[in-house]
Amino acid sequence: MKLSTLTLVVSVAAGSAMAGPIAPADVVFTEYGAVEASLSGQPGDAANGAKIMTTKSTGNCIACHEVSALSEAPFHGNVGPSLDGVADRWSEAELRGILSNAKKTYEGTVMPAYYKVDGFTRPGNAYTGKAAEGALDPLLSAQQIEDVVAFLSTLKDE
Amino acid sequence: MKFKAMTAIAALAVSAPALLLADADDDTLIVNGEIEMITKAPAPEHLSGVLDEIVSGWHMRSDETQVMQADDFDNPGMIYTEQALDDWNAVNGTKGKSCASCHGDVEESMKGVRAVYPKWNDSKEKVYTMEMQINDCLTDGMGADAWKKSGAQMAAMEALISVQSRGMPMNVAIDGPAEATWEWGKELYYTRTGQLDLSCASCHEENYGNHIRSDHLSQGQTNGFPVYRLKNAKLTTVHGRFKGCVRDTRAETYSPGSDEFVALELYVASRGNGLSVEGPSVRN
Q1: Which of A137, B207, B222, B226 has CA atoms 20 to 30 A from the CA of A7?
Q2: Segment B221-254, tens digit of pLDDT
Q3: Is residue A32 part of a domain?
Q4: Distance from A22 to chain B by nearest Cα, in Å?
Q5: DSSP states of chain A
Q6: With an 8 Å Cβ cutoff, are B250 and A123 in contact?
Q7: Cβ distance B16 to B26 under 8 Å?
Q8: What is the pTM of this model?
Q9: Would A65 be classed as within a structural domain?
Q10: Of B195, B206, B248, the CB nearest to A136
Q11: Is A85 a member of any domain?
């Protein structure tokens, strides 16, 4: 574990010298809402992805989804479908697309777009209820999206 | 207090065993053993094709929370009505008047009032919430200072006035001169806001009955307001609740008392036409 973290840090440093992450406005979606290219250009860390999904201040995915593999975290909601076996249903590119902007896959869905920064009505400054100051940050960073995609890719029934 | 709540639970368990079901969906609410509450009703006509049935948020709460509302001694919101009764009778302002000077006994003069608010005010030529009317009475009628919009004193007075209509069905008018405001409120209800891009309907129409984290989503009805929330141990007004819900979409909220929230209050109240006035209700 320690070793792999170290390797990751090294490769992140090397990668960022070459190309930065893809900005939200530059993400290319296929006709069906998938995103082929890694947003960060780096592999995702599944363990960190799991943490993001259960943390209220970041992904908070379990607010709407049940995930058996994350059952130690309390209170899974059921606004969206269970994510068990989701990697059997969707490819990595499709999962990346659903996370970046689920509306490109599901028209009119209530699932928030995690990698989108414009086109909102009355965007606020996080959860303060006040107006946003300056440009918005996406709900998750490019690397956080890749981490969650990596975790979702482990959710296979078969 | 603890003892009392327990006795009440025991008494209810005997008379209505259904109360022990986890979802508590078929429970009935009878306050003080005498006021029968309509907590489920056919949806008003303007919701045809959208909802068949309207349901009070009371049904979505735990048995422990539900039972607190069944007896005024266990309902923490009732204490505020006593404070408000003092305000009702207190002389305040340059004209030497109290609410009672003009309105007399609150139990008689305010019966049925809560059920029809917000409503069109002919002389002001706009839709008025009860708060706006109370503040006009304070400033114009009494020569006193207005109370803070959605503040504690206002919430308490709204609770006192709501109690006089408990059990009566909500019946706000949406046609005639109020229609334009109602239409605007409807538009606001369906407008997605904030970085989460959610409208009131995303949660309270499309997902009512589902859980978002630990919260059991209700239809977001206003018939129970003001609401005593166990979470912060005080009364919450309609606009206070709206503000929290809009904030939770990562949006810039509207202010309590704003024209937007007045229009939204009228529209949301009309979605509850037919449900009993419950205020002050108890929620988590």
Answers
A1: A137
A2: 999 999 999 999 999 999 999 999 999 999 999 9
A3: yes
A4: 20
A5: -HHHHHHHHHHHHHHHHH--PPPGGGPPPPTTS---S-SSSS---HHHHHHHHH-TTTT-GGGT---GGGTTSS----SS---TTHHHHS-HHHHHHHHH-GGGTSTT-SSPPSS--SS-SSBBSTTSSSBPPSSPPPSS-HHHHHHHHHHHTT----
A6: yes
A7: no
A8: 0.92
A9: yes
A10: B195
A11: yes
Put simply, the answer to whether A129 touches B246 (Cβ < 8 Å) is: yes
Compute the radius of gyration of chain A from its Cα atoms: 16
Tell me which residue has tokens 């893809």.
A22
In a domain, A9, yes or no: no
For residue A63, the chain B residues in CB contact (below 8 A) are 212-213
Interface contact B192-A129, CB threshold 8 A: no
Looking at the complex, report in whole angstroms how far the Cα of residue A5 sits from the nearest Cα belonging to chain B.
31
How deeply is B115 buried, as exposed, middle or buried, from its count of CB atoms within 10 A (0-12, 13-18, 19+)? buried
β-strand B281-283 against B227-229: which pairing, if any?
Answer: parallel
Least CB-CB distance to A110: which of B191, B202, B253? B202
Gyration radius from chain B CA atoms = 19
Residue A102's φ and ψ, nearest 5 degrees, are -60, -20
CATH of the domain at A119: 1.10.760.10
CA distances from A69 to A119, A156, B18, B36, B58 (A): 34, 11, 34, 46, 33
Number of domains comprising chain A: 1
Residue pair B245/B220 in contact by the 8 Å Cβ criterion: yes
Are B224 and B66 spatial neighbours (Cβ–Cβ below 8 Å)? no
* Tens-digit pLDDT profile for residues B96-140: 999 999 999 999 999 999 999 999 999 999 999 999 999 999 999
Q: Could you tell me the two tokens for B234? A: 């005080």
Minimal CA separation from A141 to chain B, in Å? 15
Partner-chain contact A79 B214, CB within 8 Å: no
**Domain that includes residue A36, residue range:** 19-152
Task: Specify the 3-state DSSP secondary structure of B238.
Answer: helix
pLDDT, tens digit (0-9, with 9 covering 90-100), for B37-53 = 999 999 999 999 999 99
Q: What are phi and psi of A124, to 5 degrees?
A: -105, 170
Q: What pLDDT tens digit does each residue of chain A (158 aa) get?
A: 444 444 444 444 444 445 679 999 999 999 999 999 999 999 999 999 999 999 999 999 999 999 999 999 999 999 999 999 999 999 999 999 999 999 999 999 999 999 999 999 999 999 999 999 999 999 999 999 999 999 999 999 87
Q: Which of residues 92-111 of A touch B (CB under 8 A)?
A: 110
Among A60, A62, A120, beta carbon nearest to B195: A120
